[in-house]
Amino acid sequence: MEPQVRTLVDISHTPAAMQGYADMVLERARWAATVFQRYDRASTMAIVDAVATAAHDHARQYADWAVQETGFGVAAHKKIKNELTARPVVDYYREHDYINARIDEERKIVEIPRPAGVIFALTPSTNPISTLNYKIILALLTRNSIVLSPHPAARECCVDAARTLAAAAVAAGAPDGVIQTIDEPSVPLVEVFMSSPKTNVVLATGGTAMVRAAYSSSNPAVGVGPGNAPVFVDSTADITKAAQRIVESKSFDNSVLCTNESVLITLADVERSLRQALKSAHAHICSEDEVERLRRFVFHERGFNVECIGRDAAWIGQECGIRVATGTRILVAPIAQIGVEEPLSREKLCPVLAIHTVNSRGQAIAQARAVLRLTGAGHSAAIHSMDERVAITYASAVEAYRVVVNAPCSQGAAGFGTNLAPTFTIGTGYFGRSSIGENVGPQHLVHWTRLAYNSDTSEPFGRYDGLGPVFEGPLPEAPSDGVPGSPAPHRVQSAAATGNLDGATREELRRLIAEELRDILNK
Amino acid sequence: MSVEKLEFLERSKYFWNPGKTQDWQDMGVDLVIDRREGYYLFDMDGRRLIDVHLNGGTYNIGHRHPELVEVLKAGTERFDMGNHHFPAIARTALAEALAACAPAPDMKYTAYGAGGAEAIDIALKTARHATQKRKIVSIIKAYHGHTGLAVKTGDERFSKLFLSEDTAGEFIQVPFNDLNVMEDALRGRDIAAVIMESIPATYGFPMPNEGYLPGVKALCERYDAVYIADEVQTGLMRSGEMWCCTKYGVEPDIMVTGKGISGGMYPIACALISEKCGGWLKQDGFGHMSTMGGAELGCVVAMKTLEVVQRPEVKIMVRFISDYLRAGLERIMAEYPDFFIGIRQHGLIMGLEFNHEQGAKPVMRHLYANGVWAIFSTLDPRVLQFKPGVLLTQADAEDLLRRVEIAVGLACEEVMGTKKRIM
Asked: Are A204 and A217 in contact, with CB atoms under 8 Å apart?
């Protein structure tokens, strides 16, 4: 008979058990971060590269797994995203140094990077692996530890992926514990982690409720809000290219990126040619009756129908009884109004694009603002135009912190296909109730201690060339005395111990000291 | 010292233990532990101490660990001590949990005591029954507790007082780390058991030489003696493995765990017994009885303790803590090379060696004054027992080193203050 380990008194759902578990995971992360901060740039980058390579090599495996587990998206596109969040992110930040001190002779200031420590990161179900890759790479670039809490719907693939990357990190020399996951996430457990004093910063990507909870946790948080990108196709745009880019973007991973175009706004004078171009790019333009059916299916009383998330155009068409041609990539729904009365002007994480026609550029801007007022403030917008004055007016008016010009918005706002920082965490700034308005990057996970000299010119600045934090590297392994193969003690040599006394003299001195000591203590 | 504490100490001397109460005052340690939490002790006058004595590893996972408090409270909804005459749900469940992590594959039975010494007595009785021999070999300066048989295995310091030392020549003591003398003791084939702490705690953690413990085990096999591993202070992940003997490659015939297994919350101690030694449990299962041994609430707490220490995070933390403290202690040692002369270490089992016969005593006193509680080794006062917990936080570890550095400096100055004059 084999011994069984059983639970007689189950306390697993009590606050004490959750606290105990969180403390242990976060303290392991703290230890790992403490040791990691002894690493120099070369050894850090070696770890980062090893993890990026592992993420790249497993991109397909986890793309398939994510689609299978969540039912969202297109595996081939997820593979691309998983790859994009590995090596390209590292390459983008390769020349940025978050490890060595920066010397500013001019201002007589030396800046020393101080990593956050322990990051608690939430990852969504829509972009599970790409967000996970991305947050891990960011953490490692800045020598932080990260504890990931995957969305329950994508738990299995995320836990496995994090283990794979953690193993790659350790194999490349990282302290054991820089990457961990919560294997069984639940709302109360996540709240314990978020509010723990052992957590230094919460990186929240996910539903609004979770993001708001992160901001309410009492810990510093970088949370990002939902998107609902308006895209304005101006009369000066290259209509064919604009249509192709919009379809490409909208069909990419079936619109699960929160940067996807939601409402297309165009001018009456180009509407007809734009519709034609969209059709040529394999968009299906819905009739009034089809729009009604689509509206009822995609939005029900409780809001967006999550069944639709990341489904393809054919599936949605079939569910709504809309006959679409083979190869249809997106469904385009003409809408007459924008605002609370039109659900289709809300965020749609599926290849359904609303289209609305206006009579003037001024009206287009007003409608784009209305789209973002409804939801998605601070997130993304796009414009297709050859007139830079139109572009700057539009961008100055819409409440979005990134306005993509003449490029697919899904990818472009996330820094792929534009020169924005590649990210899977879009800062929605003050418009979107977030602390950060730019694409979240490693710079947000490290603060700087500034050594500031007297500005008076009579007071000279120090010579800091070649100076900075001391990188001691990994801790030497402590011996397990008496265990074969245990490392020998690595005595630190003191100045006194390496003095000029010869061995015999030292022995004699020791003897004298010991004798005297005995006298003192035996008194 | 507050008036309240002075008054309390008088009552302690009057009603509880005058000698022990006074001895601590004489040693300059006026500690009366009041509140306790994690690895902190709070003196009744409010002073905080980081605990690296842990009462011999009893508080391995901290004082009043929240999960243990919770499981004990929840346990009272269903259990009390139980009735030792009958098969018992919690006692069997803990026995299974122990069998699942035992240091030898055939270790299937667990017999319970209310404390470590009782479990040692059970182990010794079990060995005597299994071998039908009486003699027990232990290490000079060994310490296995204060009950009838256990006390005889140890230093006479604790047995003679009560006229309880061995007078029948049944308890033989041999020096640690000497296989030749061990073999001489066993050669006559009249030894029932060798009892061995994997690292003798109260003797200041002298570390076994490479091959010593496996050598002893081999000798036990050759001369038909039972190997009893006393893992009371060294078990439960303190070495970085569940049981320290495993690290040395020893599969004992009987193993005793106490102190830490109770989580410091509910008294319990266990003797794990291999199939080949457990004959009495079949022949006469009523042979040993203990009303409070294996109290079922204690079993519930012990099962949680086992579960906590076996989480994968713990082993990794032990590694971090031991590497980090080692690096820090070596720096301190380099500062005071003539005074702080050695570190004995296996994971979080550490002895700090000082260059004086009583050297650990002033260090203990200065640590106490600087907010750290660590105790000298009773049977080798040159050595300070340094036993940080397996869940020690990074912040506490850093603070601990800061305080140790100060205390070692002060102790060095106190006992070697004349050093400069000599040189």
From this structure: no
Cα–Cα dist A363/A104, whole Å:
48
- Domain termination site, one of B275, B309, B343: B309
Question: Torsions phi, psi of A314, nearest 5?
Answer: -65, -45
Structure-block tokens of residue B353: 């060696």
Task: List the domain range (segments joined by +) for residue A266.
Answer: 229-411
Same domain, B234 and B339: no
Asked if the Cβ–Cβ distance from B213 to A482 is below 8 Å, we say yes
Cα dihedral sign, A206-A209-A212-A213: negative
A95 CB neighbour count, 10 Å cutoff: 6
Which ipTM score applies to this complex?
Answer: 0.93
pTM summary value: 0.90
Give chain B positions within 8 Å (CB) of A470: none
Nearest to B320 among A31, A494, A513 (CB): A31
Tell me: do B54 and B83 sit in the same domain: no
Q: Do B78 and A9 touch (CB under 8 A)?
A: yes
Query: Structural domain tally of chain A?
Result: 2
Tell whether the model's pLDDT for residue B257 goes beyond 50: yes
Residues B320, B264 within the same domain: no
Pair (A213, A291) in one structural domain: no
Q: Which of A425, A445, A418 has its CA nearest to residue A227?
A: A425
A157 noted as active-site residue = no
The verdict on B209 and B350 lying in the same domain is no
Range of the domain at B339: 31-64+312-422
Chain A residues near residue B389 by CB distance under 8 angstroms: none
- For residue A477, list chain B residues with Cβ-Cβ distance below 8 A: 323
Query: CB–CB of A513 and B333 under 8 A?
Result: no
A233 and A214 share one domain: no
Mark whether B72 and B159 lie in a shared domain: yes
Residue B378: its pLDDT value, please?
A: 85
Q: What is the mean pLDDT of residues B330-351?
A: 96
- Among the candidates B309, B327, B342, a domain finishes at B309
Q: What is B34-75 written as a DSSP string?
A: EEEEBTEEEETTS-EEEESSHHHHTTTT-BT-HHHHHHHHHH
- The model's pLDDT over A298-339, given as tens digits with 9 standing for 90+, comes to 998 888 998 899 999 999 999 999 999 999 999 999 999 999
